[in-house]
Batch of 2 targets.
Target 1
Amino acid sequence: MTATRLPAIETETTSCALCSFSASRTRGEIRMDGQLVGRMVHCERCGLRFLSPRPTQRQRDWLYEQEYHSGLPGEHGETRFASVKADQDLALVRFGRYLAQLEGIRRTKREGRARLLDIGAGTGQLLELARERGWDVSAIERSGEACQYLAGRYGPGSVAGRDLTDLEGAAGSYDAVVMAHVIEHMPDPLGALAMAHHVLVPGGRLLVATPNEASLYEWLWQVRQRRRGASAANHYVAIAWREGCWYREPVHYDARSLIEFQILTTEHLYFFTRRTLGEMLRRAGFAQVNWASGSAAPASSRFGRLVRNDLVNRALFLLDRHAELVAIAEKGRTA
Ligand SMILES: [Zn+2]
């Protein structure tokens, strides 16, 4: 173990994003070199699970920047490109399923083409598929480089902005909004859902997909990790169960590993169940919430790699079709 250290990590505490209650119970801690990076808690009033304290937005931006420029390999030593490419192939299957849920909206559009906004569009795989299926597409994307790429590919008008606040003047502009595995990364998920409601036409639909914290998969995975004790969850992170709490620890003490560890363990700020996500959608103003069956294909990219590279994890995951939450929320016609 070398003496490699990262600069002190800026953290912030937050009250419950769903009910504003400030009392919460600790479920696990994320520590590195004795430094508290984040704490997994659940709200004592409504049960929402989230990180508090958590790295500040500035800290998270810094981490993603480091990751982007560090040329890190994939989690299991494969090249970054190979792992990202494999994730994209799986993602297309899921994106097709999401768009099928919104197809009724597109078909019943009376005048002009139906408009779809993808929040957190990345490099636009979902937009590509949506355009093929007859949607007019727009994106919100945080990465400046991805925005440039999207504008080049789909036209300058296709990038609605880099931040949700760029949508303030766009009330009633979209027939459908997609948030595919982004809400769990957002510091203000209720504000994000309210903004999606704001930009939808009356009767428009929002699709939200996120990992299901209450799934059989999550539960079995945690039981298994407890039995194993401190074991490597992947190339960079070990998970341990000690004194009633989860701990995640870096496997290697070098700068790259520590950066990857921080990103991996703190990129999800919220952990939803059907109950907490449904309640948050109603608070954001949605009149009706329906649920589609989730995907058996691995969800987020890192999680996908974690599942694919471990046979038991993979078997557990495939057994559980509820590992992913897919909510379709409708904006009231009279709102
Ligand atoms: Zn709460």
Note: Residues 87-213+272-330 form a domain with the Rossmann fold fold (CATH 3.40.50.150).
Target 2
Amino acid sequence: MTSAKAAPPPVPVPMARILALQPKLRPTDLEDAVVSTEDPLLLETVCNLVRIWATARKDLPADFSERVQVKALSRQPLSFASIDMETVERDAMQVNEPFPPGSGVDASPWPTSDLFMLRPLSPPTFPPAPQRTRVDLPGRQSVGVCTSCQGAGAENCVTCAASGRQICGSCSGTRQVTCPQCGGGGTHIGVSGRYIQCRRCNTRGTIQCQNCRATGQVTCQVCAGRGTLQCEVCSGHGNLKSRWVLNVNTETAHEHEFSLADPWPAPTEQLLSDTEVLSEVIVRPADGDATISAVAPASLRSMARRVLEKVSSSASGEQRIAAYRVQIRGTYLYDVRLEYSGRPFTVLIGGLRSQVFPKSALPAKSGALQTLGRFFQKGLRALATDERPGVGSDFVKAVSVGSAHLTDTNCLLPAVAAYLRCPCSVTGEGYVLQVVEEASKGSIPGPAIPISIKLDSEVAGKLTLCASVIIGDAHRDQFPLALSLNSKLMVGRLAVTEIDGVETYIYVDRRPYDFASAGRYAAVLQGMAAAVRWLSSSKPLN
Ligand SMILES: [Zn+2]
Ligand SMILES: [Zn+2]
Ligand SMILES: [Zn+2]
Ligand SMILES: [Zn+2]
């Protein structure tokens, strides 16, 4: 009874884009080879991602999140050439409609009978499902007598044979109905208990029909007594106008291919929709091949041409190819060597939502451990809301909606932003907080100071908060002055760094991640923002 039940399939935690793993790619980035990385930020980010992924898998040991380690990390771009082809089928159809007197008739001839020449194609929309539309075609109109009513505009009412009167339904035309008092017998039992003669019908057993006022006929319900009905075909006008409409059937055919420098067993079909469109071009059939060069980097061009040929050959004879949408899509694919309790295993991570796919067998729960695990999980549930130690449920939630960085396991910066009531966005390396001034009542606060906070883990496990603001161009002769200003700053210090080949003043504060409660770190950022305002208003560096 205990272990026979199959485990339910794991429900992955949906992930917002993690910029550290999936930075903005350019098409030429897709030409990169496999590279391995020891960047501690990436290793930490990947490890936390695997921990979060593990929370959704009940088939892993209970202490998995605590004990899993990243041993090696490499990545390569996964690229797709994805081509949609819009085809259009057209046919002209004659329709008849009522012709009210005085309305216009466009009898002008068509300049051509080629339906694709007659009306230009609409801009392509590449509908995911076949789409049928109908548009009016002016010209070639004519007017004729309605064949249904022979021009009369009206037809005799069949129900009353054009008389306008119908036999009464209550008395069937007899003008009399059964007396309700005596039920037709002429006598009934009176209050004395004896039979008495019916006074309602004077013992006749019937009374006059009230429905038809004893005429046996009522007004015809169908024609309201007129005896005729308006012709439905011509709406009573007697004439019909014949005009032309164009039926348009638009369909989209799709083909794609993928490319990987090293053939890792990635579920590419699953990843296609989770990749970013790096370049896109809409082309007409005439200029298809030439524009592929514009959209695809050199190494992907032959793949793109192959896909284009494949999709083109799927068009049938009646269809015209309206346009192609050529897309180059891509994502970084990560090969993650992990270790749990001395056992190595590998997962692949890819896509904008950082999907995790096991590449080798995962560490399994042993029978004995499973029982123990359950016992411990019960204990843990009493202590905390999350079932797995090492990953807080608030952290999982915050990462999955893109409000916390994967290395910020305490959700420190979102808490700081809440404390400062300022906007906070997740970047590849950490966050940017727009720190606003604490203005006294009635005064207008100055502009928000954007402070970027990098989560630096030079040594794995020792995370550093590195807050910085770019101040402006630096000049060598001011360096001593800048250094002397540092003694006036309550937090952080001014430094010179090169940004895009230009020497730039940067204001930096570094402190250990463990230093900070939200309140204390909020005070640090407020101090920095105040110093930046002072530097820009009193201009001690000019
Ligand atoms: Zn008619
Ligand atoms: Zn009638
Ligand atoms: Zn009666
Ligand atoms: Zn009647």
Note: Residues 27-82+256-373 form one domain.
